[in-house]
Design a protein that fits this description.
Elements lengths: L2 H11 L14 H14 L10 E6 L11 E8 L2 E9 L5 E3 L4 E3 L5 H11 L6 H8 L5 E3 L10
Parallel strand pairs: 5-6
Antiparallel strand pairs: 1-2, 2-3, 3-4, 4-5
Length: 150
């Protein structure tokens, strides 16, 4: 057998190292939509765009605010309310400042879509909190009814 054929055969039967999956940042429009759902589930009437707004946040030189996460600021009358970080591999969201993990039912379809695309599994609340450098996460699952303000 020629040498090149032997080398090719040897390389083809050797196990290949697992490829490292790198999740791309969640598109800004999707991240803002998810943050709007979180704010709505928190009881805010986000349809009032003169009061509420959302903005993607980054660190220095456009680096992610939190590695592996897409970050969205939620503001009320120009004052920061939440710093929502969304895991790029799972689509799970939490408030970076309060260590609240948002596990509302209407967020599940987005999370399933992101996890399916990334071949990922759900992280525990403790794992998410660890990523953000906080302890004792509080998981919120029940939406607060939106109170209409006159």
């Amino acid at each position: 057998m020629p040498l090149t054929a032997s080398v090719f055969l040897a390389l083809s039967v050797l196990p290949t190292p697992p490829s490292q999956i790198v999740a791309m940042p969640i598109p800004t429009s999707d991240a803002v939509d998810l943050a709007r759902r979180v704010a709505h589930d928190e009881g805010y009437d986000v349809a009032k765009t003169s009061v509420y707004y959302f903005q993607q946040l980054t660190g220095p030189a456009g680096a992610p605010f939190l590695e592996g996460y897409t970050s969205i600021g939620f503001y009320i009358d120009g004052n920061a309310r939440n710093l929502i970080v969304i895991n790029n591999r799972t689509g799970q969201a939490m408030d970076f400042n309060t260590c609240e993990v948002f596990d509302y039912p209407d967020l599940k379809p987005f999370q399933k879509q992101v996890m399916r695309m990334n071949k990922a599994t759900t992280k525990t609340a403790e794992q998410l909190a660890g990523d953000a450098g906080c302890g004792s996460p509080r998981v919120v699952t029940k939406p607060v009814p939106v109170v209409s303000q006159k």
